[in-house]
Design goal:
- By secondary structure, the protein is mainly α.
- Helices cover about 30% and strands about 5% of the residues.
- The protein is built from four helices and two strands.
- The chain has a two-stranded antiparallel ribbon.
- The radius of gyration is 19 Å and the shape is globular.
- The relative contact order is 0.11.
Amino acid sequence: MPKRAARAQQLGSRQSSQAKGKKVKRLDRANSTQRGYDRRWRNARVGYLRSHPFCVTCAKADRYITASVVDHITPHRGDQELFWDTDNWQALCKPCHDHKTATESHQAPS
């Protein structure tokens, strides 16, 4: 009976931790609580999602997907006034939020 082929990892090639689905800790970034995502935010988030239960991006395409993320339309970058401005919030599903965030992070800062 033929032997199973050796896995790439066993041969010495290593995948990045991102490719394995693990989060990479950024040393240049404050933790979520330090960035303002504390108990007050969690409570505000729950209330907002109760009032806005569907992803706004999906709803524009006539798909009614439950939102799980309260997104800052304009990234607040630590500005607490913009952080708490409810006119700057939108309800998104996780895939839509991840897509928006990835798109924004590849754009040049203004």
